[in-house]
Amino acid sequence: MKNTLYTEAFEKLWLEEAETKTRMHNRLFCFTFLVCNPVFSIPFYLVGDPFFYTIFPTHLFSGSIIILLLFLHSKKVITGQQMSFYTFVILICFYAFLLSMPHLSYVQSCLNLTLAIIFAGLVLRWPVRYALVISGLCLTLFPISIHFFSDITLATFLSQGGMFLMMANLLFPFVIRLSYIKDKREFYFRYALQEHNEALEKQKTIAEQATRAKSDFLSMMSHEIRTPLNGIVGIVHLMIQEETEQKESKELLDTLKFSADHLMAVVNEVLDFNKINSNHVVLDPVPFDPGLLFENLRKTFVPKANEKNLDLVFEVDPNLPRRLVADTVRLNQVITNLIHNAIKFTAEGSVRFVVEEAAKDPSHVVLNFEVIDTGIGIPAAEQGSIFEIFTQAKPTGQRESGGTGLGLAITKELLRLFGSEIVVKSEVGKGSMFSFQLKLPYQDKMEQVMTLPENETAPVTFPEIKVLVADDNKTNLLLATMLLQRKKILFDTASNGQEAFEMFQKNTYDLVLMDLRMPVMDGFESTALIRQVNPQIPIIALTASAFEDERERALANGFSGYLIKPFIPEDFYNYIFSFLKGESSNAV
Known about the structure:
Elements: H1 2-40, H2 42-46, H3 52-74, H4 80-99, H5 107-123, H6 128-149, H7 154-241, H8 247-277, E1 286-288, H9 290-307, E2 311-316, E3 323-326, H10 328-344, E4 350-360, E5 364-373, H11 407-417, E6 423-427, E7 431-443, E8 466-470, H12 474-486, E9 490-494, H13 497-506, E10 511-515, H14 523-533, E11 539-543, H15 548-556, E12 561-564, H16 569-577
Parallel strand pairs: 2-4, 8-9, 8-10, 10-11, 11-12
Antiparallel strand pairs: 1-3, 3-7, 4-5, 5-7, 6-7
């Protein structure tokens, strides 16, 4: 049934296409005979053939019928193909009549009729049944009119050009069929291609909608997960920093901190992978001190390596340029993922991080990075799949569980953004080596560079500063105000954007911390109103959305900064202090 419907639909479209495409040809055919038939009678007059006085009026009469057919076609009573077909049928009938009339010679008539059939084969694009009817009429009516009504024999007619006329009529259906099939085949290919393109376009639209829905879902879930997680992580860090006398309470807090940090890492990995796959991650190169970066990385992993009695070795080429230019956040993420995995899957022995200079020119240096462990190793059959999403190698030996399986997938995608790729060499039971190369610009001059903050912030206070905090989540509001209290920073709170704007009109503030999604009035609207009152005041977006497009939207709509939840106290202080530099030189 489906094929039948498809054929019917195709045939209907083809008939419409054929009618449109051949409309001018059919009109040309009719106009040609309307003009040329009377003209073709002139040679009979010139040679003194009395047949002229029969053929000329006959052509005028047939011309009047052709004019009628053209009129009916213009009124859409008949199609163009029907018009040319009826015209040819009428002409054959009139020619059969003329052939029965006395001639001095049939050569001119046969020549005219042969040219007519050749012209029809070149111009017309008919269904084959039309051509068969025309050929059948010619092959039947012409010999009958000659044999029964003319004063000459059929042999004489054939010898004076009738043979060529009969052969032309025999070939006419084949010529029409070839032309018709050729046009129909071309249309079929175009029709099939169009259908294929439409199907692809439909699938593309569905895929784009699915991708958009996935991103929207993750964006929403990001906000819903990160918002309570921010309160958990922040408050746990604050409680650990307090003096805790009871050993059991300290252990419970350490366990809670570990679980909160692990949950935060899982959420960040899922969202990072989605952002990279959605092309929402753009590298942000800045100058940095490689020695400081790698030393901070080493300090980060020392406690974990000590817990497992592993030797953590950092072998950094001492001749590296003093200033490299790269996206340090993403480079740090790549190295952290690799070292974290190495420590995680190494029970004894060592983990080595090696950075060597592979090549150098006046503007760029090629660095070779290696992370080498003596862990459980990865079977050769699984080495290609460990970089796939949600995939972890499972060698025979025991292996620590946990994690999303996204760390190496994210690492691979980040290195793709850097224009590099990761290489793995591993043997079960003997360890693994992950390596990659980066070509980075470098600077030899001493310049202000981006540095990574230390784990502890300096004791800075801002007793004369006042901050407005707007957030509808009570836990996050409590965390932000507790962090401000510890630095003796004065603050006011608002539970929605409307309340925040009203408080801003009544009081003077040095900084605004604004959640983006709040009831009554969201952070975007409130910020726009505040900017009308004071275009200069720093307004930092506190949001659970980590998507680049929302960050760009916030910065384009009046926000001065963008701090993503969840954050730990050190991140919070380092970020907001950078907007209070004018108040204290020790802010950072």
